[in-house]
Amino acid sequence: MQNIEAQIEDLKSQIAAIDKKIPSDKISMIVFSGDMDKVLAAFVIATGAVAMGMEVVMFFTFWGTPILRDKKKKVGGKDTMGKMFGAMLPKGSCEVKLSKMNMGGMGTAMMKSLMKKKNVASLDKMIEMAQEFGVQIYVCEMSMDLMGFKREEMIDYSNMSYCGVATFLEQAKDSKIQLFI
Amino acid sequence: MSEEIKVDKVMDLKGLPCPMPILKVTKGIKEVEIGQVIEVWSTDPGSINDFPSWARTRGHEILKIDPNGTVTKFYIKRLV
Predict the structure, then answer these.
(1) Residue A145 and residue A81: Cα distance in Å, rounded?
(2) Could you say which of B5, B10, B18, B34 is catalytic?
(3) How far apart are the first and last CA of chain A?
(4) Segments making up each domain of chain B, as ranges
(5) Contacts of residue A5, Cβ cutoff 8 Å, sequence gap at least 6
(6) pLDDT tens digits, residue range B10-20?
């Protein structure tokens, strides 16, 4: 009898260990690209996933980082390289370009007007929707530092924090879907 | 058949492309009680597949899909 009880206890602890290994209904995305079309796709998937009942985390790194800059904010105290990067990289989601057919900005402008005509949500609007739906955004601290961005120049987004690779991996390990965009 | 479905809320999503229809419906369905029905009008051709996928995943029931020219009407019952 005692043997059976011991076996049940053993099984219980095994089930608990297995339970811990089952990923949650979560999607983890790395937004590496700074192209308007790719980032738009990332936000469409992110908001769609929340609508489907999933938890969503987005990690912005490298070229994705400048998309989260606020064009209205100005910060001082940058070094020469920081100033250079700051000037050359897009300042916010309004300044990003298409990955294809940009044609010196003409293609992007045409796409934007077409999107407006067809009622397709702009990147700006999608970021707003993501905030409303509770999409968690993490920004790569290393990219921020490398490009000389300061936290004060980033957009006001309620669920945004700064992290490194371990935070992403912890979340990705526990996600059913992981995407690199 | 359509007379038999008692609708508690109507959502006009005409002209909205993906992903807006499912985002709006996700919010809209919370405004009715469990067991009540929303009627959704959509012109997005993707909705024909998207609403059933969404309903299956969220655990709601699509009572009827009524394609009527460019506008399709969906009758969705909130179950959870």
Answers:
(1) 11
(2) B18
(3) 56
(4) 9-77
(5) none
(6) 999 999 999 99
Residues 6+ apart with CB under 8 A from A147: A65, A66, A82, A85, A86, A89
In chain B, the residue whose alpha carbon lies closest to the alpha carbon of A125 is B20
Q: What is the pLDDT of residues A46-89, one digit of tens each?
A: 999 999 999 999 999 999 999 999 999 888 888 888 888 888 99
What are the residues of chain A with a beta carbon less than 8 Å away from any beta carbon of chain B?
44, 47-48, 50-53, 118-121, 129, 133
Domain B9-77 fold is Translation Initiation Factor IF3 (3.30.110)
Question: Does the beta-carbon distance from A47 to B16 stay under 8 Å?
Answer: no
Domain A24-180 top-level CATH class: alpha beta
Among left, alpha and beta (phi > 0; psi -120 to 50; other), residue A121 is beta
Written as six digits, the tokens of A69 are 């800059």
